Amino acid sequence: MAQAEFDNQAFRQALGSFTTGVTIITATAPDGTPVGLTANSFNSVSLDPPLVLWSLAKTSLSVEAFNKAEHWNVHVLSQHQQDLSNTFASRGEDKFSGIELEDGISDAPLIPACSARFQCRNTVTHDGGDHLIFIGEVVDFDQQALPPLVFQQGQYAMTARKPWEEVALSAQPAAPECSYNEDLLGYLLGRSHFQMLYRMRKVLDEQALEDSHFFALSVMNIQHQLTIEELNTHLDYTGHSIGEADVKFLVAQELIKELDNDVYQLTPTGRETSLHHIAQAKAIEEELIAELGSGDVMALKLMLKRLIHKTDPGLPDLWSEQGAK
Amino acid sequence: MAQAEFDNQAFRQALGSFTTGVTIITATAPDGTPVGLTANSFNSVSLDPPLVLWSLAKTSLSVEAFNKAEHWNVHVLSQHQQDLSNTFASRGEDKFSGIELEDGISDAPLIPACSARFQCRNTVTHDGGDHLIFIGEVVDFDQQALPPLVFQQGQYAMTARKPWEEVALSAQPAAPECSYNEDLLGYLLGRSHFQMLYRMRKVLDEQALEDSHFFALSVMNIQHQLTIEELNTHLDYTGHSIGEADVKFLVAQELIKELDNDVYQLTPTGRETSLHHIAQAKAIEEELIAELGSGDVMALKLMLKRLIHKTDPGLPDLWSEQGAK
Question: Which of B7, B130, B191 should one mutate to test binding to chain A, selecting the residue with the greatest count of A CBs within 10 A?
Fold first, then answer.
């Protein structure tokens, strides 16, 4: 491809295939003004001496401040700092307002709650076309167990670690005549759901409750007063429903009671029972977070929410006031 | 922290918080030998002129080859190239064996099936402590729609894009008195599973089949001959089971038939029906891939498999020969 044909937009897009973290780099200008900007051009260079680098556009308003700074700090942002990333990516003033800066080894602003921070001595600058390459010696650093924010193809992203251990579910490789295998998303979702529910069963079995009762009590925990018909609009998509026999059973167990006009609500026992279920579900989730890591579980939830959005058959909003009386 | 106390391992770990893609950089040595290595120190520098950089340990056996090369190529690896990444991260020889190299603008080896590739003229080298910083001018590049391989905290990872659109499921912010909200993993898994299943219902309803029948036929599609008791060991964790009435119904519908000794198998109609179900499940998955992107769905599946591993109550291996007769 001749230089003349070089398509800048396509070039940027191709560069976007290379995934990066997101950093904020800060320094203090000679007049004492704090400066800072979002950069994903950070990278490590050397372990001994400990060097890192990043690039700054020559057109940046902060070029002089960084050139003259004796120190600058690199903040590797966590998933929770996406707003901060946007703020420091803009040209706005007062980027630092509302941030409780911490004390570092230099006058360079030090932002809290990052995945990692590197406090650096500004050592060398190299020319890099329309950018300047800053190389710094790391004088101090720290790290927190916060899932890092990620940038790919012009979008923020989260990572799910590919574990070193094998994740195959079956000891057998999929036989060619098999019409489906463990890679089918529907199978994986069903198995995940039922295995999580299986862990709930001990609690449900103790109370002789079926899945449909568990789901019904959970809905009534949010939507406090419902007719059975209204209750079933929330259950319908699960294939479960509450029939007359179920209502009798739940009333006999003193978990729900009838008010006027065919409207039902949880009894205090029913509410306590449902809260116990939800506490159990949260405990199961906490166990998983301990095993899979909070970053992975967060990414899993995000993707499930996107899947739910894309496959929603138009369910009533469980948390809206409309359904409640 | 004084320089003497600098903990190299902690420093590497903190650097690992900064997520990167994975690249293979290649060149041809003066004697014609192809050289290549895995690097995650790649980054873009400048758009005009188009410059990129990466760092190479001064102790690397390939230093001389890269120093003398007029060109080198950067390959941004895709999720499918993890093995290749490992190969080029080792010191082994014959790294290029089995790779069908493509023709580029120079003699530098060009590896196929990457997320993006940058063919560069070797322009400047800077000292970077124990590394050399190579800066190259991008002369040609290309990109493919393959999800990129990611590296974070010393592990390979996958990314799930954080969509710009809001992913909240409810129009209402979670009220403080709510005992659970849309962030509960168990709820998200259940809703995802049931919404996917809901899309199957049109097909199932046409045949008056219940969820348990669908699950049973799917199991019998893999494990061809089973007693009902054996079949139910595969269904038990779902809370579903096949009882006498179900067996009668499925036999009457000519979907399963009894062989000797209480052993059942699918009839040709039953097999065709199950294949139709699975084709439908695959079509639903394809629709989702089109909407969410193949990288995200791949990451979702990976995490579901890890969740399944961690929550497995000891289910029989559906795909193993043991259960089959």
Answer: B191
Query: What CATH number did the domain enclosing A191 receive?
Result: 1.10.10.10
Is A188's CB within 8 Å of B308's CB? yes
Task: Look up residue A297 and give its two tokens.
Answer: 């579980």
Q: How many contacts does A have with B, using Cβ atoms within 8 A? A: 448
Inspect the interface and report whether the beta carbons of B8 and A47 lie closer than 8 Å: yes
| Token pair in block for residue A48 | 């001994």
Neighbours of A281 (CB within 10 A): 23
Q: Which residue has the tokens 């040595």?
A: B29
Report CB contact under 8 Å: A128, B135. Answer: yes
CA angle, corner B124, sides to A51 and A40, nearest 5? Answer: 45
Same domain flag for A260 and A300? yes
Whether residues A196 and B211 touch (CB distance < 8 A) is answered with no
Among candidate residues A122, A113, A105, A124, the one with its CA nearest the CA of residue A76: A113
CA distance, residue B63 to nearest chain A CA (Å): 15
Same domain, residue pair B100 and B19: yes
Tokens 């190389």 identify what position?
A135
Alpha carbon distance A106, B86 (integer Å): 40
Are B18 and B142 in the same domain? yes
How many domains are contained in chain A?
A: 2
pLDDT of residue A324: 39
d(CA A44, CA A53): 6
Within a domain: B167: no
Instruction: Let me know whether A243 and A135 are in one domain.
Output: no
CATH number at residue B69: 2.30.110.10
Tokens at A44, concatenated: 């490590």
**Closest C-alpha to B70, from B159, B116, B139:** B139
For residue A216, what are the CA distances in angstroms to A46, B179, B215?
59, 14, 24
Residue A258: give the domain boundaries.
185-311
Cβ B112 vs Cβ B102: under 8 Å:
yes
Alpha-carbon distance of A239 to B198, in angstroms, equals 8
Window A:127-146, CB contacts with B under 8 Å: 128-131, 133, 135, 138-143
Residue B43, phi-psi category: left (phi > 0), alpha (psi -120 to 50), beta (remainder): beta
Max intra-chain CA distance, chain A: 82
Across the interface, of B51, B128, B201, the residue whose CB is closest to A51 is B128
Same domain, B45 and B121: yes
What residues of A are in contact with residue B15 (Cβ under 8 Å)? 44, 52, 116
A137 and A24 in one domain? yes
Residue among A116, A172, A211 minimizing CB distance to B14: A116
Q: Do B142 and B190 share a structural domain?
A: no
**CB of A235 within 8 Å of any CB in chain B?**
no
Q: Do residues B257 and B265 make contact, with C-beta atoms less than 8 angstroms apart?
A: yes
Tens of pLDDT along chain B (325 residues) come to 444 467 889 999 999 999 999 999 999 999 999 999 999 999 999 999 999 999 999 999 999 999 999 999 999 999 889 999 999 999 877 899 999 999 999 999 999 999 999 999 999 999 999 999 999 999 999 999 888 999 998 888 888 776 545 556 667 665 544 567 788 999 999 999 999 999 999 899 999 999 999 999 999 998 889 999 999 999 999 999 999 999 999 999 999 999 988 999 999 999 999 999 999 999 999 999 998 888 788 889 988 998 998 999 999 888 876 543 3
